[in-house]
Amino acid sequence: MTYATTAPALALDDLHASLTDPVLDAMNFLNEVVARFPDALSFAPGRPAEGAFEVEDLARHLRSYTGHLERSLGWSRDRVRTHLFQYGRTNGIIHELIARTLANDEGIHVPPESVVVTTGCQEAMLLTLRALFARPEDTLLVSSPCYVGITGAARLLDIATHPVPEGAGGPDPEAFRTAARRLRAAGRRPRALYVVPDFANPSGTSMDLAARELLLRVAAEEDLLVLEDDPYGFFVRAGSARPTLKALDRERRVLHLGSFAKTALPGARVGYVVADQEVVGRDGRRSLLADELSKIKSMTTVNTSAVGQAVIGGMLVECGCRLREANAGAIAHYAGNLATLLGELERNFPEERRRRLGLSWNEPTGGYFLVVDVPFAADHAALEESARTFGVLWTPMSDFYTDGGGEHRLRLSCSALTADQIVEGVRRLARFVESRAAGPAGSR
Amino acid sequence: MTYATTAPALALDDLHASLTDPVLDAMNFLNEVVARFPDALSFAPGRPAEGAFEVEDLARHLRSYTGHLERSLGWSRDRVRTHLFQYGRTNGIIHELIARTLANDEGIHVPPESVVVTTGCQEAMLLTLRALFARPEDTLLVSSPCYVGITGAARLLDIATHPVPEGAGGPDPEAFRTAARRLRAAGRRPRALYVVPDFANPSGTSMDLAARELLLRVAAEEDLLVLEDDPYGFFVRAGSARPTLKALDRERRVLHLGSFAKTALPGARVGYVVADQEVVGRDGRRSLLADELSKIKSMTTVNTSAVGQAVIGGMLVECGCRLREANAGAIAHYAGNLATLLGELERNFPEERRRRLGLSWNEPTGGYFLVVDVPFAADHAALEESARTFGVLWTPMSDFYTDGGGEHRLRLSCSALTADQIVEGVRRLARFVESRAAGPAGSR
Question: How many C-beta atoms surround the C-beta of residue A201 within 10 A?
């Protein structure tokens, strides 16, 4: 593209600081690399598998939803039409279906009014952060490495984040406690903590039941709210599903962030947050936090697309609000892919070879991701070389650490590949790793 | 709803200050009053007319869009499926159709890459404000009275706004100049100004061509960007449509905010911003402002719903990207309604009566709204009384002034009523006004 030379240009330095923040650049860089090497096998993006989706399904889902309104709720045709046409309820129109699904699938029992339907889970994060973070000293604790969606949203709102290193068992409750106390001693106000308890993005780690219970205790003792993000919880490879933090929450400390992108349809852009906390005004008036989030949502997107909600609503109606059962095929797909990926890593890097190379990886019990520790800098330059010369893409882990770290780690996502692609992808990855390991010592 | 007494409550004072801001409360209050008096005739909300919309149309629009991809662009079935299913391009998938429509309807010629498709125009405002406002001293000038969507979004981001009183001819360029200079002298940085040039919400005023040209000159001389919001421009009652500021913009000073809520389908929640400004990094690298907005959008909603975009895309395909022509029926409807409203005001308040009452109103040449100056406080209490006793709803203008003002003004919206409803509504309004005017002097 060419530009007229007379137009005044804006200085990037003069725009909001988030635009020059590496967190915000990371996602764009990855998208751009993926686009530049369309023939590479990609372990990079956390894309959901497309399963049996067909475009024609959209019309069926819409009919399922409007049929539900007409037949189950007895709505008139005119009312249904207005419902889909007009600006609607700020907090969404499928909150009751979502509440029923959460009860069926997760044993989470909350009033439908506490469910805020959002334009994807990302908006849920934005609303939640905006509501809870009021003062300059308010700080969000994040388990690190951390999903860039939450740190990026915090950056947009100029909210301070503080990384808390996870352990092999995922987010570390005692480390959160220590961090909260230290921050408080330094005059900051630790306000909430963010965790992905199941098969975290990016590390694939999970919290066991004892860690979940301890985290809730720490949150209560340190007066922290818990932002629980659980997009991958259905996708168990080994063992059984564990209760979400929200299902264990007796004190309404947990805000449960949800997504239909992995379990239903990313293109609908529908997510939600359960915010059943009570809010008390100066005059003693009480409201639900969800109602406060509604005020913010009216200034971010006004409504979530009624059309998008109707499609997801139709899918929920079709499965009787039992989305976990409806995901049986997807669960098997992701579990099989992760097993294949682990098996191929083992086959390509038998013990003797990986000891020689200084290579290791973790073995997540579910989800989309695992992490490989490599004997070289897994940076953007290495990724380019891997894509160009070896035809395989992955994600540098360092993008997920806000204060440095992860320089010798890479994330592999196997969600949207076939078994054959995984086999070939690991073969290519092995060649790339071998070439790097044989490279100059300086590349380490 | 009952709450367990053991749950810790959050103090509203401890949440973000926007939640106790009257701007954010205003919209919610109005929605709530409308809901409480469902039988009242409502001149309150700026709801689009539903026209001939039927639920089944959604499936047709989806087919029109996918047909366009397959037949006009030659896409494979698989590619179309992925396009609708997956996470997609951050800045949207119907940007080319929107660019073509802007060229046809508005004579706005911009590269499709400069169009950012958003979750309604509200997200476009949020992204734009976030990108442009970087420092505490950065200030947004808004023509006052002002649409609460922009002042609310600024409040969410802790961005300072400065109201600039409009005149009878709408936003006042020289007043913007004076305000910018004063702010600069006081150490602030006036960064951009926000205007609705056509049939503004809430006042119904419009800028003539000379005012538009002068505004662009003032913006250039005072180094201000212009945020142009133009949801009502099609809906001309008298005279002819005027060029948008963006169509007149030779310097790329104007960011053009657009909505399909009034011209296509509110329930799709699709809007956009044209951001063809050039941005220069410290290293000399150049980008489009639209690309910078994309980084922010990836942290607010990631994508605009592909399903919502496909519905709007299908509508654009169906009308050959000539949305103004497709709106001929809507244009006639709104023009007719506004003429009826003006005629009924005249009929119910003939000159002698309105002189006695101290009543007057403006006569917008198009759009949804007009303003009545009344001889009593048009506040929330008056609105409640009007709804309860007289069965008619309107909007207090004072909600649209951020620094006081408009206490004796009310907004009437006639967009979603029938002619009969307008006739009956004005009759009720006249009884209400008469009762107030006859009331105690203290109510003035």
Answer: 22
